[in-house]
Every structure is written in structure tokens, then in C-alpha cells.
Amino acid sequence: MKQGDEIAEYRVVSEPTNANGGKCMWAFAEKDGHQYFLKRFLEPKRPREGSTASAASRRIRLEVCQEFEDRHRGIMKRLRPDARGGGNLVLATDFFHEGSTYYKVTERIDTSSLEKPQALEPRQKAVLLKTLALSLQLLHDIDVVHGDLKPLNVLVQKREGVTFYSAKLIDFDDSYVSGRPPGRQEVAGDSLYGAPEWRRYVQEDKAVQPEHLTTAVDVFALGLMTHYYLTGALPGYSDRYGSPADAVNAGESLVLDPRLTDSMQGLVRAMTTPAPRNRPRMATYLKALKDPQVCALVHRRPGTAKPASTEPPAPEPRSGGSGEPGGTATRTSRVRANLGRGKVPAPTTPPASSPPPSPPTAEAKGETPTPTAGRTSRVRINLGDRRRTS
Predict the structure, then answer these.
(1) Looking at the whole model, is its pTM more than 0.85?
(2) With 0-12 CB in 10 A as exposed, 13-18 as middle and 19+ as buried, what is 308?
(3) Where do runs of H (alpha helix) occur along the chain?
């Protein structure tokens, strides 16, 4: 594929690139006066006509291709462009193969540049997160897992004359039906935003079976993204681990920005719990966003920072057996504020494409907050020389 090529009546109008494309090449294209986003899959490849490959090899390749086609067409059938509330889903309009190569087409979306979403006012942040959550709710209501939820797959749009930004959810190439993901070697995702059960699944942990990868995978990613959109950085975790999910799987607590409101800290903590069934559903998340001030950043005085609420939103029951990874018993979030001299792991650096994180607070640097208990106030008052004379 190169600029000027015509592929199934789509004329390529930009130089193809692999930037953020994973196992794909992409370019912009035109057809009948409309602009499109054209993606070329690098694999799988259909057997070419006249190929000298053995019959067994051809059969295996065709089986892989058929499974690939069935998954993509199945998701396209579920995600209809005319679905109510689907205006912020950027869905595929065409899927085909030409020769041995598969292609997918979506509408081209003009987006605004929003380098620092954390700089928005609380109400603007709430609207941005709501539009993203509504799209996810639409997916989850039909048992579809996005599967690769991260900021790169969210286009931020602000139309002329409109005050608020909206989130356009894109790239459903790695989506699957809840509980029915591709095999361990084929399932896609991003390790930085992947859920704990997804990480264990791809790491060949036999305790995690396909039915354990449900819509809760997206909820974990959204919890991380919420922290990122509000503060400019992901939650912190020890550099001993390669991702937030790895830290959670090791029993570590993610370090949340103390500027988040108590309600938001409780919500993010619940969304990133290790047990999938204990994570809240989108309805709970949207209910929390009804008050825009939940998205505000609170600049607390030193020594007055409160721990996250010990009562996160009550999770709604999820379907699944008792063998779910991470445990199934309902648990309340237990957040411990470190007021001693132990160091708190500094937040990790976000991807290169992410806006720079906010300057670290004293707590994030590992400095010891001023103790607030166990000391009596000692005040000396100089009253001067007030001896009486006779």
C-alpha cells in the first residue's frame, strides 16, 4: 500500500505509516468524495493463488483467516453505526480482503489537540469522561469488551461553537465477546493499561481461563485513564513491576494522587481492585460523575491530606463462576495513609505520547508529611519585664 494506490475503490491520499498501528499500516483514503481511515493488517495472510504451500499448510492458514474474519464481522454486526447512543463510537464501515491482505475502513474524524486534559475545569473533565463512559456502557450492554482501552484509542473532539470536549472511542480490532477472548498468543492489548487477569492470561497462568476476561477488563483500564485525565499521570507503583496490573497482582496498592477528591479516590481504587467482579459497572461510574466537583483537584494543606474513602461505590454483581481470579468475596477498599518515614513509590513516567505529568507532591517524592498526632503544642509567650515597684 502506497500513496496513490487504489484498493477496492479507495484511493490512498496520504503516505502509509505504522505509527501507533501495532500489526497494521494505515493511511487516509477517499471514495466517492468522502474521507476515510484505511487500515491494512499485516497478519494473518490468506494463501495466494498458485501458492506451492502444502494442502495442510493452506488449510491451517485458511482456518486462522476464517477465525479472524468471524471475530471482526461478529463485532461489526453487534456494533451497528445506527445504534442509539453510538454517536461517539467510530465504527468500521467496511472490512474486506484484496489478494492475501485484509483491510478495514472507518470514517475519518477531525479531532482537536488536547495536550493537557488535566488543565480543564472540573465540569469539562466530567463531560469528557461521561462521553467515554457512555460509549463503554453501550459496548458492555451488548457484552462486548473493547480489549485495548487506552488514551491513544480515544479521539478528543471539540466542535466549533461547543463549550465541551467529547471522547470518540476508536479501534475495535481487538474487541471480543465478554468471556470469549482470542487465545493467549493472539489476544491483544497494552500492558500499561491491561487488567491483572489479562496480564495473567497472556503470561500463561492456567488459573485464568477465557471466561475470566470480561467487560471488567475495560473497567480497570478506565480507572487508570480517569486518574491520567484528571492529574496528567498514571497512578504510582513500584519500579519493581512493569505495569500497574503487575503491581496489583503482587498485592501492592497503587499510589493515587492526593489531590483527587476523596470520592474519586474511592472510585478509582474500586475500579482497579484485583478481583474483576468487585469492580463497578459503568452505571455506577456515570452516577459518580453527576457531580462535576468529583473531578476537581483538591490542593490540601500539608498534614491534612485524607486517605481515600474506605467505602467505594458498591459493585454490582457480575456473571461468572467462583473460580474467578483475584477472589470473589466482596471486599471493601482498605487504603492506608503512610504517615511514617517509609518512602512512597513515585508515579511512573507515562508513555511518550502522553502529556507531561504534574509536578510531584511531597508525598510522591517520599518526603515525610508533618505528623499530626502524638505531639503537644509548646508555645512560649514573652510578656517582657513586668516586675512591680513599690
Answers:
(1) no
(2) buried
(3) 55-78, 122-141, 196-202, 216-231, 244-249, 262-271, 282-288, 362-365
The full DSSP string for 101-156 is EEEEEEE-------S-GGGS-HHHHHHHHHHHHHHHHHHHHTTEE-S--SGGGEEE
**Three-class DSSP category at 326:** coil
Q: Which of 142, 218, 213 is nearest to 183 (CA)?
A: 213
**Dihedral angle, C-alpha 348, 273, 232, 244, nearest 10 °:** 20
User: Who's near 214: CB < 8 A, 6+ residues apart?
Assistant: 145, 178, 179, 276, 318, 319, 320
Query: pLDDT (tens digit, 9 = 90+) per residue, 106-142?
Result: 988 877 667 788 999 999 999 999 999 999 999 999 9
C-alpha cell at 33: 468524495
Can you say how many angstroms the Cα of residue 290 is from the centroid of all Cα atoms in its chain?
21
pLDDT tens-digit series, residues 327-366: 433 343 433 334 333 333 444 444 433 344 444 443 444 4
How buried is 330 (Cβ within 10 angstroms: 0-12 exposed, 13-18 middle, 19+ buried)?
A: exposed
Name the one residue in this structure whose C-alpha cell is 511514617: 340
Query: Quick one: cell of 34?
Result: 468522502
For residue 195, what are the contacts with CB-CB under 8 A and spacing of at least 6? 216, 217, 219, 220, 221, 245, 276
Angle separating helix axes 122-141 and 216-231, nearest 10 degrees: 170
Q: Residue 12 corresponds to which cell in the numbers above?
A: 490512498
CA 260 to chain centre: 18
In this structure, which amino acid lies at residue 323? G
The rounded distance, in Å, linking the Cα atoms of 197 and 323 is 12
- Gap between the Cα atoms of 312 and 268, Å rounded: 9
C-alpha cell at 175: 474487541
Radius of gyration of the chain measured on its C-alpha atoms = 25
Sign, CA dihedral 384-387-388-390, equals negative
